[in-house]
Automatic annotation (TrEMBL):
Pfam families registered for this protein in UniProt: Sulfate_transp
Name of the featured protein: STAS domain-containing protein
Domain STAS: 407-485
Record-linked InterPro entries: Membrane-Transporter-like (IPR052706), SLC26A/SulP_dom (IPR011547), STAS_dom (IPR002645), STAS_dom_sf (IPR036513)
Keywords: Membrane, Transmembrane, Transmembrane helix
UniProt KW rRNA processing keyword: no
Amino acid sequence: MFIEALPFLREIASTIRDVLGDNNPALIPTVMAAYAMTSILIGVTFLALGALGCVSLFSLGLSLTLPSDTEPLTLSSTPAVLFAASHIPLFLSSSLPALFLSFSLRSNFFRTITRGATQHALYVPTFILAIAIIFWSTEAIKGNVTAGGITKLAEQGWLFTIESQSGNNELQGYKWNYWHLFDFTKIEWWAMRGSAVDMVLLVAIGVLNLPIFVSALALSLGNSFFSMDRELLGHAASNLFAGAVGTVPNMIVFSNSLFFIRAGGSRKEAISVAILTLVIFFISSYLLPYIPTLLAGAFVLFISLELMIESLWDSTKTLQLGEWTIVMGTVVACTFLGFAPGVGVGFGVTLVMHFWWTSIDSRARSIVTGDQSASQNSDSRVHLLRLVHDNGSHDTDVEKNAEVQYKFRDVKLLPKIRVIKLAGYIFFATIPSLEKEVNMPCSGFILLDLTRVHRIETSATIFIKNKVQELAAKPQAVKVVMCGLVRDSGAHLDLKRGHINCTWDGDTNRLSDAEEEIMICFEGMREAIQWCEDNMNRRHGNVRAAQTTDQTIRSKIPFSENRSEC
C-alpha cells in the first residue's frame, strides 16, 4: 500500500465514525466494507484509465503522536494541540529527529565527517531504528519498562494502543484475522455517503499515481522498455483481489521499488520480502504495543519533509516558473481549503495554463533524407539539398542536378537523416507524437528542428534525454542532433534544466563515446545536416573518396566564380 493512501483511509474511517458514533457495533464492519469497496473501485478503474498524486502526509505525521482520543488536526486547532504543555515533549521528540535526518542527508558537512555514511542506503532505516533503541533505553533507566509503566506511556501517547479484547471471548484469537470484522448484517451502507468524496479522491489519486510512478521509476533506472498496459492490468488484478479478500488498496511504492531494484532485487528476493511481510502481519499485534509513536511520527514527518522539499525547492531547478507556480498554488490551496478543493484548484489552473500554452499545434512531423527519400521525385530531393547547400548563390538547374547525382550516388553509404519538426510549446501531450516519429525506422541521425519552439516542458525534456540515451544504446546507434536552437533562449534553458548538455556548431567534430552525453546543437538546419553528412562519411571512411568525386564533378560543370565551398 502506498503511504499517500493513509490520510484518505483515516478520513473515510473518521467520517463514518462521526455518522454512526464511537460505540456503534456497525462501525467497524462499515469501515471495512468501505475499504474493500475502494479497492474494487480502483481495480475496475485501472482496467480503463491511468495518470497523478501525493499530499496530506505532514498533518498525518504530526497526528501520529497524538493520543487516540484527540480531535483531528485543523489549521485552527493545530497550535493549541501541538504546543500544549503536555504535548510539547512528544512534538519535539518526533519533529526534531525528522528535521535532523532530512538536513543530514543534504549536508556536505555531515557527508564529510561521516565519510559518506549519510549517503549509504541503510542510513535512514538505521537512524529510524535508533530512535526506538534510544527511547527504550531512556525508559529503562527511568524504570518504565514494567506493565504499569508501559500502560502509563500508552495513556500519555508515547506508545500505540490496541483495543482491549479481554472482555469479549468471541474475539479471542482473532488478532491477525481481520475477516471476523466483517458482519454484513451490521453494515450500514447509507453511512458511506459522507465518505464518498474521500473514496472517489482515493480512487483518483491511486489511478493517477501509477503512470507517473512507473514512468519515473523507469527513468530513474534508465529503462524505457516497459508496458504501461501490463502495469495497469497487473494493478487492476491486485486491487480487485484486495477488494475480494476485504483489504485496503495497494499500489506501486516508488521509493521501495527503486531501492529494491538498485540493491539487485529480483523475483527470488521479492518472494522473500513477501514472506517476511506475511510473518510481520501475523505478529504485528504483539509488536505494535511496544513501538514508540515518535518513531512512526518521525518517519512519516521525514517522508513528508522530503516530498515537500522535492516538490517546492528541488523542483525550482527543473521546472519552469509557470509549472512551479501551479505546484505551489496547489499546495497552498490544499493547506487552506482542504485536500479535495485544493486538488480541484490545481487541476483547474493546470487546464487553464495548458490551454494557453498549447494554443499552437506542437505535434511532431518529420521529413526524411537519404535512402528513404530516394524514391521521391528529384524536385523534392533538390529542395532538401538546398537546406544544405543554400549559401546565397544562385545555382543553375544543371548544378543542382549534379549535386543530386553526387549525393545519391551510392545510397548504401549515404546519410540517413530524419528531420522532425516541432512547434510551439512542447509539453507532455507532445510526447506521443514525438515518440511515434522517433521510433520510426532510421539508421544514422535524427534531427530535431526547434526553430518554431519557444518553450519545452520539463516532462518533455526528460523524455528527450531518456530517448537519446535509448537510441544511442541500440546495436545500430542513432544520433540525435538539434537545430533551430538559440543560445540562452527559453528552449535552451529548459533543456539545461532537464540536464541536457548542449554544444553548438559541432564543437566535437567526431562521434565518440564521450560525446554520447552531449547534445550537438545548431542554430541553422543547413549546418546541422551538413555536420550529419560529414560524420556519416567519416563513419564509413569515405572522406577521401567523396572529396575526389566532388572535385571530378565540379571540374566538368561551370561554377560561379564567387561560389564558396560547402
